[in-house]
Amino acid sequence: MATVLIENLTKIYPPTITYPHRVQALGGVNMSVTGNVFVAVLGPSGSGKTTLLNIVAGVETPTSGSVRAVQDGVPAQVGYVFQEPRLLPWRTVLNNMLYVQDRKSDRSRREAEFYLTMVGLNEVAHLYPSQLSAGMQQRVGIARAFLVNPDILLMDEPFSHMDALTGRSLREYLQRVWLHTRKTALFVTHDVSEAVELADRIVMLRPGGVVFDDIPVNLPRPRHPDDPAVRAVEGEVLRRFDSMEAAVRFGAQAG
Ligand SMILES: Nc1ncnc2c1ncn2[C@@H]1O[C@H](COP(=O)(O)OP(=O)(O)OP(=O)(O)O)[C@@H](O)[C@H]1O
Ligand SMILES: [Mg+2]
Fold first, then answer.
1. Which atom of ligand 1 is nearest to the CA of 205?
2. pTM given for the model
3. Closest atom, ligand 1, to C-alpha of 53
4. Class of CATH domain 1-34+48-76+188-255
5. How confident is the model at residue 108 (pLDDT cuts 50, 70, 90)?
6. Which of 26, 50, 194 is the pocket-test mutation for ligand 1 (most atoms within 8 Å of CB)?
7. Does position 255 have pLDDT exceeding 50, yes or no?
8. Three-state SS across the chain?
9. Of 6, 61, 69, 181, which residue is the least packed, with the fewest Cβ within 10 Å?
10. In this predicted structure, what is the pLDDT of residue 252?
11. Residue boundaries of the structural domains of the chain
12. pLDDT, mean of residues 158-167
């Protein structure tokens, strides 16, 4: 079982020549994520979401505090889905999938095809990324991330570059693959309805990188964005979001 334990995590960017102020990207974040859960980190632009994910991934170092990502007592393997798909343009879809596999066996090929089918792309496995739409490319990115089978999957606004209709279908595909694997996931977004559709729990960040709220989402899956139950939770989260904005505007130390 995978666990991410984040303790008193702070990240301060020092002043630079172009921006002569220190920036507090994260201000003492505490959170823990354990087991087969999908956790959304929700916050406005600049609230430290990407910084948090990068520190969990180990590609950035905190100013203070700690992150431990553990799988059954040993350091966990972490996978990352970026905002843009980052496929290799000179490899076909299938070879982009196999590229991340250690062994090029029949089995890994079957697994690659399985995940491509899950995201509705087995028919285009022989095409090159430039022959696919942006949404299809991101579906390859998702299929590839699950194929790698990391202990913990980090996703940083993977649908934010997509138009609304494409985003909608991508969320449906992601739900389908996630339900199959139930991989421990940390998913960053600034989109309330996306968070409610996908997550078991929503950790809300406010500017300055401080946890403002931690909201469980107890809805059955698969979830549909138009389902009144989903809409109701969305309304509740939006209300909390508004109260956070008001608190920030009036300078209160909420959370
Ligand atoms: N390398 C850096 N150097 C200086 N400041 C940085 C750096 N990276 C991020 N910041 C600042 O830290 C704060 C948090 O940035 P971060 O990218 O984590 O926010 P975010 O919540 O991911 O925003 P968005 O929703 O726009 O992606 C911002 O004020 C940002 O300007
Ligand atoms: Mg970001």
1. 21
2. 0.93
3. 18
4. alpha beta
5. confident
6. 50
7. no
8. CEEEEEEEEEEEECCCCCCCCCEEEEEEEEEEEECCCEEEEECCCCCCHHHHHHHHHCCCCCCEEEEEEEECCEECCEEEECCCCCCCCCCCHHHHHHHCCCCCCHHHHHHHHHHHHHCCCHHHCCCCHHHCCHHHHHHHHHHHHHHHCCCEEEEECCCCCCCHHHHHHHHHHHHHHHHHHCCEEEEEECCHHHHHHHCCEEEEEECCCEEEEEEECCCCCCCCCCCHHHHHHHHHHHHHHHHHHHHHHCCCCCC
9. 61
10. 54
11. 1-34+48-76+188-255
12. 90
